[in-house]
Write a structure and sequence with these properties.
about 350 residues, alpha+beta, Rossmann fold, D-amino Acid Aminotransferase, Chain A, domain 1, Dna Ligase, domain 1, 3 domains, 6-stranded antiparallel beta sheet, 5-stranded mixed beta sheet, 10 helices, about 30% helix, globular
């Protein structure tokens, strides 16, 4: 890895960590695998300028592998999450979790690392399981006094009554796979006749659905992270989608305009930042999270919480870090150091 005078942290307090072995995990088993790989690549490339000894980790359904900076692949031992390099056993000091969807964002991967006492940059497994379940997360947020949209829950195999659903949430509404991210399995419904086809499509992604009233207003997203021993709220981003909502195309294919920092009335900005920080601290989040809101009548309503937000070149967290004057490299190192400091 980088050494000598080429290391930008040569005279920085981070330099003591030069020998730490860091793995950037990406991939996973869900529809978000390819986006996760792109996020992992950006993080890995950024960390090449860090004091750490870095490796890429591909978590696939059949095999887990480690790749070094030269592109050499090594099998990863699932029993201890270690690997052999030139006859020497390597153990990771910390894992940067960039696995969107399962098993990274739903808490399974975090639980595995916690069992092995390996620090990681995502939130605790129990918290991840809660936030990944949209309807449970919104129920907890509502109990905290955070405004949310009217919602209806549906499980595969239950009797579906479009009349009852429309009476509860109104039209237009959103049909969402309950445990998925990056707008997979999300459909906007304008007419009652569109409801059943949208439900059938969403059930292809998950057997639990969340159906919500469509809030009309300005949509924003707020990044929060633990960095340098404090919880920081990053500059807010406003999302103006060319499509009906902030869907996959809007997020990853340039079909949206993202304004960072968002030009909001001061009271809107303050109330949203307060809610985002409250969600982060009271729900027990850690690492980097991103909470999405829509303003209705000047009040921010929570849509969802993303505990492993994207880090691709098009992603929002890097934009917000730049607006805050924080180089992405320094932000990532700070998150890793915060995770290392918590090891028992």
């Amino acid at each position: 890895m980088m050494g000598g005078n080429s290391c930008p942290f040569q005279n920085d307090y981070y330099f003591y960590a030069m020998r730490k072995i860091i793995g950037v995990a990406s991939g996973g088993f869900s529809s978000e695998r390819e986006i996760s790989k792109k996020s992992g690549q950006v993080v890995f490339d950024t960390l090449l300028e860090s004091p750490y000894e870095c490796y890429q980790i591909d978590i696939a359904s059949k095999q887990w592998t480690v790749k070094d900076v030269a592109g050499n692949n090594y099998p990863l031992e699932k029993g201890n999450f270690g690997f052999s390099l030139e006859g020497k056993e390597k153990q990771f000091d910390c894992i940067v979790n960039m696995i969107h969807g399962a098993p990274g964002e739903n808490g399974q991967f975090a639980g595995y690392l916690e069992m092995l006492n390996i620090p990681h940059t995502s939130c605790p497994s129990a918290v991840a399981a809660l936030t990944y379940n949209k309807r449970d997360c919104l129920a907890v947020a509502s109990a905290m006094g955070i405004p949310t949209a009217k919602r209806f829950t549906l499980n595969q195999g239950e009797v579906i009554s479009p009349d009852i659903i429309v009476k509860k949430v109104g039209l237009p509404c959103f049909v969402k796979a309950n445990r998925a991210g990056s707008s997979f399995g999300v459909y906007k419904v304008f007419e009652k006749e569109e409801l059943l086809p949208a439900i059938e499509k969403a059930f292809e992604e998950d057997h639990q659905l969340l159906i919500e009233s469509a809030l009309e207003g300005r949509e924003i997203t707020v990044g929060v992270l633990e960095w340098e021993n404090e919880v920081h709220v990053l500059p807010i981003t406003e999302i103006i989608s060319e499509n009906d909502f902030f869907d996959y195309q809007a997020k990853y294919e340039g079909k949206s305009k993202e304004i960072t920092p968002a030009q909001l009335p001061l009271d809107w900005e303050e109330s949203t930042k307060h809610m985002a920080k409250q969600l982060y601290t009271k729900m027990g989040l850690s690492g980097i999270s991103r909470s999405e809101f829509i303003f209705q009548d000047g009040v921010p309503h929570l849509l969802e919480i993303n505990t492993i937000p994207g880090m691709t070149l098009q992603s929002i967290i890097p934009q917000q870090a730049k607006a805050a004057g924080i180089p992405l490299l320094k932000l990532l190192v700070g998150v890793i150091e915060a995770s290392l400091s918590k090891k028992a």
